[in-house]
Design goal:
The complex is a heterodimer of chains A (about 300) and B (about 250).
Chain A: H1 4-21, H2 28-51, H3 59-74, H4 80-102, H5 107-127, E1 144-145, E2 149-150, H6 154-176, H7 179-189, H8 191-196, H9 201-227, H10 237-250, H11 257-271, H12 278-293, H13 297-305
Antiparallel strand pairs in A: 1-2
Chain B: E1 5-16, E2 19-25, E3 28-30, E4 34-38, H1 45-52, E5 60-65, E6 68-69, H2 75-80, E7 83-85, H3 98-111, H4 128-137, H5 153-166, E8 171-175, H6 183-196, E9 201-205, H7 209-215, E10 218-223, E11 226-231, H8 233-238, H9 240-247
Parallel strand pairs in B: 4-9, 4-10, 7-8, 8-9
Antiparallel strand pairs in B: 1-2, 1-3, 1-5, 5-6, 10-11
Helix pairs in contact in B: 3-4, 3-5, 4-5, 5-6
The chains are: A mainly alpha (about 300), B alpha/beta (about 250).
């Protein structure tokens, strides 16, 4: 059991090295986008990969936190760190409400309720005046971190995103490898048995849902500050679909899978952007291919090759 | 009321649409005994189990555990009160190791609820040695690191019993502990049930009559949801109604 940690450390080191060195050769804004989506996918994976719950409305947390952070930074003049915390807290609160409503349902019903809630949220943001409707909230000031570090400097911004991403990643890692995570896995494996051992499984699932929503919010709020924009794209149902794709492609229930999945999906979108609507077709094709040929996802298959979970 | 009845049902009834699975069952399980619930397929044995542990809601009737009405208690609370069940289909956590399977139960027993997502799972390692004792008790010591899904069937049942035992339940409900087992597995599980029943009460559903005759102090025979007969093995096995229920009319 102890030896299985070594390869995780190595993989973590590779990941950190990648995000530290890559901006020397790759456009940093692109990498920041990757990290935001990677955190979003990791948060989603906490819920489905370790709790066995498929949420089809996770965009509502990403988007809500984005709007809250953007609005508070732009209109209320919050400093970036406070705006991010505020956005994350909003996603956490929404996660609590959505969780209480959805958590008692299972399988497809759970997915449908989360989708329905996310659609309600979407149409609310479409109409609400503060979101700017189709225009979104634009020109959000990045401001100065703690009043000191000017985030309009791309490297300062990059460092902040990297720290947020790594902190979120480690937080999820700890949650998975905690006494709570152990109970969560047992619920995923066999819920009636977990009940018969005396666990109030609903509460554990609710906590997992709220944690996942909160971290998705952290990703959304950070993203809004980085891109100085909060828009309907982030609350649209296709965003909920995209995070499923990222997680599945990278490897459901693997620690590093969602990061790899996010990297692949965001790269495709960026570098195939000139194909226009065909990007969606390519994504669909990859999705089908993934489900048919490598269901464990990229990292899942890799883990199988080296016979260690990654 | 005698004090030594630990689990009792009064008028327990479960109706599914137009079909009565359990009808007016009055069961009295005495403390410290092994009580077997037998009967032909469809007699309502497993439904009874599901009612006792509130995995199903009874249509009528009530359930008393240690004198308290537990009819409306949620299943997890019933388990925490010391009434712990196993399942007919082997109930392990398939992709966790044998050690982790047992530890999940110990975690519940020793730590209480575990919502602490910020604590390292290393704290659970203090449960390893009691977990190993239980694994040893059911003869699975060489499989400690094995993923549960890879265990042979009989070993899975043994693991399930070890997991149930980890909660140190006052009453163990075993749903067909020897179903589908090879002869040697049956012997091992029988001996195991005998051994673990020392300080507790066992209520079990069992098809294998030789197991029932070896183990149980009291036998309740169910047929079509109703109690047909009750008593020790000698008296129940001579009961003409029971013989008929098992073999059909014209035998005996």
């Amino acid at each position: 059991m102890t030896q299985s940690k070594t390869h995780e450390r190595v993989a973590f080191g590779v990941m950190v090295a990648f995000f530290v060195l890559a901006p020397l050769v790759v456009y940093p804004v692109f990498l920041m986008k990757v990290m935001c989506f990677a955190l979003f996918a990791c948060a989603f994976n906490l819920l489905i990969g370790y709790g066995g719950l498929l949420s089809f409305g996770h965009a509502m947390f990403l988007g809500t936190a984005g709007y809250a952070a953007a609005h508070s930074a732009k209109v209320w003049g919050f400093s970036p760190e406070v705006a991010i915390v505020f956005g994350t807290a909003c996603a956490c609160a929404l996660g609590g409400i959505a969780g209480v409503l959805a958590i008692r349902r299972q399988g497809i019903y759970f997915a449908m309720i989360t989708l329905a809630l996310a659609q309600m949220i979407f149409f609310y943001y479409l109409q609400a005046p503060f979101t700017g409707g189709e225009d979104g909230i634009q020109a959000v000031p990045r401001g100065r971190l703690l009043g000191l570090l000017d985030l309009s400097n791309i490297w300062a911004m990059y460092a902040v995103v990297l720290v947020v991403f790594l902190a979120g990643f480690l937080f999820i890692y700890r949650a998975i490898h905690s006494p709570f995570g152990q109970v969560l896995k047992s619920i995923r494996e066999n819920e009636p048995r977990a009940v018969s051992l005396g666990y109030d499984t609903t509460r554990y699932k609710l906590l997992a849902f709220i944690l996942s929503a909160t971290l998705a919010g952290l990703a959304g709020a950070t993203k809004a500050i980085v891109f100085q924009l909060a828009s309907l794209t982030d609350v649209h149902w296709s965003m909920s679909g995209e995070v499923v794709l990222m997680t599945l492609l990278g490897g459901l229930g693997t620690i590093f899978g969602p990061v790899v999945g996010a990297l692949v999906v965001v790269s495709l979108e960026n570098y195939l952007a000139q194909l226009g609507a065909w990007v969606t077709v390519v994504q669909g094709g990859i999705f089908v291919l993934c489900v048919l040929t490598f269901r464990r996802g990229i990292v899942g298959e890799l883990g199988r090759l080296i016979r260690r979970p990654l | 009321m005698s004090d030594d009845v630990i689990l009792e049902t009064r008028g327990l009834t479960k109706e599914f649409k137009g079909f009565v699975a359990v009808n007016n069952v009055a069961l009295r399980v005495r403390r410290g005994t092994i009580h077997a619930l037998i009967g032909p397929n469809g007699a309502g044995k497993t439904t009874c189990f599901n009612l006792l542990t509130h995995f199903l809601e009874p249509t009528r009737g009530s359930i008393f555990y240690k004198g308290n009405d537990i009819t409306g208690s949620p299943p997890a609370r019933i388990a925490r009160a010391g009434l712990v069940r196993s399942f007919q289909i082997s109930a392990v956590f398939p992709h966790l190791t044998v050690l982790e399977n047992v530890r999940i139960a110990l975690q519940r027993k020793k730590r209480g609820p575990s919502f602490d997502f910020w604590v390292s799972e290393k704290t659970l390692e203090q449960l390893n040695s009691p977990a190993r004792e239980l694994i040893h008790a059911v003869g699975l010591e060489e499989f400690e690191g094995t993923i549960a899904v890879e265990l042979p069937y009989g070993r899975k049942r043994a693991l399930e019993i070890a997991t149930t035992l980890a909660l140190d339940p006052e009453v163990m409900l075993l749903d067909e502990p020897t179903a589908g087992m090879t002869h040697s597995d049956v012997e091992r599980i029988t001996a195991l049930v005998k051994r673990v029943s020392a300080n507790r009460t066992v209520l079990m559903v069992e098809h294998n009559l030789s197991v029932v005759s070896t183990l149980s102090n009291t036998i309740t025979v169910l047929q079509r949801g109703e109690i047909l007969a009750e008593g020790d093995y000698a008296s129940v096995s001579k009961n003409p109604q029971v013989v008929e229920a098992y073999l059909g009319a014209g035998h005996g």
